[in-house]
Structure formats: C-alpha cells, structure tokens
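Take a sample.
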Amino acid sequence: MNRYYFTQALQITMPVFFGYTAIGIPFGLTVVNAGYPWWLAPLMSIVMYAGAGQYVAIGLFSAGVSPVAIAVTELFVNVRHVVYGLSLITKFKNVGKWKFFLIFGLTDETYALLTGCTVPEQSEPGTFYGTITLLDYLYWISGSLTGAIAGTLLPFSFEGVDFALTALFAVLLIDQLRATKDMLPCAIGLCVTTAAIVLSKLHVLDARHILLSALSTGIAVLILFRGRNGFSSEKAEESPGSNTKSDLEG
C-alpha cells in the first residue's frame, strides 16, 4: 500500500475508526453474551461484514429462526446497498482490480466517505477508494474482535451502547454536508422519514415498514427532482469559478 494513499485515507476514515470501534465492541460483546464462542464475532465480520445485519443475525440465531427466514430478513435489512451500488457505477468504472473488494466492502459509512471525498490529483481512483474501504473493513474486524475477547474476560453493561450507531451516522452526515454542500438529499431524507414515522403513529403504515417506505420514497423523490433540475445544477457546477472553493475543501 502506497504511503501517500494510506495517509490520506487514514485522515478521511478517522470518524469511521472511532465509530466502528464503538459499535464493533458491543457486537463482540453481544455474540459472547448470547452464548456463542468469541471467534464467531470476528469470523462474521470478515465473511459477512454488515454491521446492522450482523446484530440482526445474532438475534435471529438465538431465537432459533429458520435459515430461509434469516436470509429473507437480511435481504430486507441490507436492500439499501443495491441503491448504493447503482449510484456508484460511474465512480467505480475505472477502479481496476479493486472493483470486487469495493463492492464487498460497501457499507453505509464507507459509502458516505466515498461519495463525500475527492480523489487527490495524480492518484489512482481504485487504490484511493480501495484503501479507504480496506481501512474501514479492518476497523470493524478489530472492534468486534476486541469486544468478543473482552466479553470473555470482563463483565460489561450494555446500557447506552445502542446510541453509538446513531452518533456515527450524525458525524458522517455533517462531514458529507461540509464536503458536498448539497442539502437536497438530507432534506428529502428528513421529510420522508418524518412522514413515515407520523403515518406509523396514525396506524396508516406498519411500523416495521418505516425504513423501507422512507428509503424508497426518498429515492423516488430525489430521482424526480434531479431529473427535472439536474441539467441546471450541472451547469452551475461547471461554470467558471463555481467549484473552486469546494474542490479545495474536498
């Protein structure tokens, strides 16, 4: 790994390092607390690498749910990654040998970093994106391993640890807004999520469908809006001097 790429990626992934440490350790503790051997936590992180999906899987394993039901549940939990992949087709077009690893390592947090950062001049996109993805992958594995080992040696209280994931997403959102200056996706996400929650409180929408409903509606609204106004937005970005400041900040 080139030292330059590593240094740049390390700076970019610092929020994910702290977040994955805070979230990965509780996952390792959860595995041990559920009665499974400590090595299952890092093994799942290496092979599965789906934070929320791993938490869900442990709960389903403990409940004795059938493999088919687990597979269907995991599909719905992680279906958002299909949308992530579609939006990165152009960005991943010339990444070379890194493509398959980038597809495998595409998590929510990594997606936020890849869409919010700019490839340095004279740099290979594949190596740059791949280094970011690899570091995030290692952070998650080390966090879950630490939690699993600690869980076998020391007693832990789980009170409050569930807020770590929310805090991580908040940090990534702020960082992405600072880099892209694009408030539209955030505004749409806030509106459709609020609407979905209100509808569930009114018993119009099943509470289990809040995430899927908000995600699908948000994507549809964003596509409609960008399709209608995307040309003017691109012209504004391409106008002389319009993106100098954002490029320097990115």
About this structure: Residues 228-250 have pLDDT under 50 and may be disordered. DSSP finds 13 helices and no strands in the chain. The two ends are 22 Å apart (CA to CA).
